[in-house]
Amino acid sequence: MVKRTSFEHDDCPIARSLDAIGDWWSMLIIREALFGVSRFGEFQKRLGLAKNILAVRLRALVDQGILKTAPASDGSAYQEYLLTPKGRGVFPILVALRQWSEEFDEHPEEIASILVDKEKGRPVRKLELYSQDGRLLGAGDTALKPRTAVKQNRRVRA
Amino acid sequence: MVKRTSFEHDDCPIARSLDAIGDWWSMLIIREALFGVSRFGEFQKRLGLAKNILAVRLRALVDQGILKTAPASDGSAYQEYLLTPKGRGVFPILVALRQWSEEFDEHPEEIASILVDKEKGRPVRKLELYSQDGRLLGAGDTALKPRTAVKQNRRVRA
DNA sequence: GCACCTGGTTTAATATTGCAACCACACAAA
DNA sequence: TTTGTGTGGTTGCAATATTAAACCAGGTGC
């Protein structure tokens, strides 16, 4: 493989996100963490993934500042993994993934849960993208602009 | 490896999305397609990925109804790959990924482009999640509810 | 007819994943 | 204090996926 291509230094922010959290397990680990899971064993039980790869993923997420380790909260001498603000910031991505499934999945009847507003218990609205002056935007209403002060001769991609 | 674990029949909609488009290249292919790229060679040139894996990914995306093939538009006898509505529905996911990078990346100065509203040329707002009665929701304001008519004894995950 | 472009497939090397077995430490009971 | 059990890993090995590079077939251009 030579090396799985890394997008760490790509100039596309989508590629950069994918490089950080764009693999199946990382995203699911963060999903569980958002629901309060914090212990190694609990991640392993709920996700059913191999312990070695869980260990690698947790370390990578900690290195990237998405999770942080803390010295236990239930009194035991073990540690727990907690989300940082950066980690909690993944929430909209997970919501977008969920809503895409809900809208386009071939077998929506297999989907077991729906995301609701905690206060009223009613399903949430679809994520919406607005312009600064409040117009609802679709993909076609947007464009990419090079950032100011971008180094020349770097290819602007997306 | 025995087999890379598939989430195709997982009951979590996030896992199901990831199973469909949760790998680096698929997401980036869709990103390019949203910008109008439609030809094999152009995907290959812009993404710089090996042609064999591009072929595999394109086939998978077509099988899943995210892309469809059409018999050329520039007159040549070749075919092109176009997004279906399901494919265009990925847009919010890409926006969410982009915004996460913009907000939390360690080296934001390396990000080359910003997403703007085409009409005014101004940066778009952050994606926002609302309740049905219009309140802005964060991760903590939401909960998961089992779908009605869900088969019993299936574990509700997320 | 001949070169070359497009859109792939094949091959072989290397990386990643996954399972299972092992291990070290904490804690608890006997 | 030995024995047992749960937690949180690490190690080894086999299977699979990714990759670059070489190859190839049909269309197109000249």
Protein model, in words:
With 158 residues, chain A is of the alpha+beta class. Chain A has a domain at 1-87: Arc Repressor Mutant, subunit A, CATH 1.10.10.10. Chain A contains six helices and four strands; from the N terminus they run ααααββααββ. The first copy, chain A, has helices at 13-21, 24-34, 40-47, 51-63, 85-88, 91-104; strands spanning 67-70, 80-83, 113-117, 142-146. Chain A has a two-stranded antiparallel ribbon. The longest helix of chain A has 14 residues, at 91-104. Chain A is globular and about 55 Å long. Chain A starts with 12 loop residues before the first helix and ends in a 12-residue tail after the last strand. At the A-B interface, helix 1, helix 2, helix 5, helix 6 and strand 3 of A face helix 1, helix 2, helix 5, helix 6 and strand 3 of B. Strand 4 (142-146) of chain A pairs antiparallel with strand 3 (113-117) of chain B. The first copy, chain A, binds a DNA duplex (30 and 30 nucleotides) through residues 1-5, 39-41, 44, 49-55, 76-79.
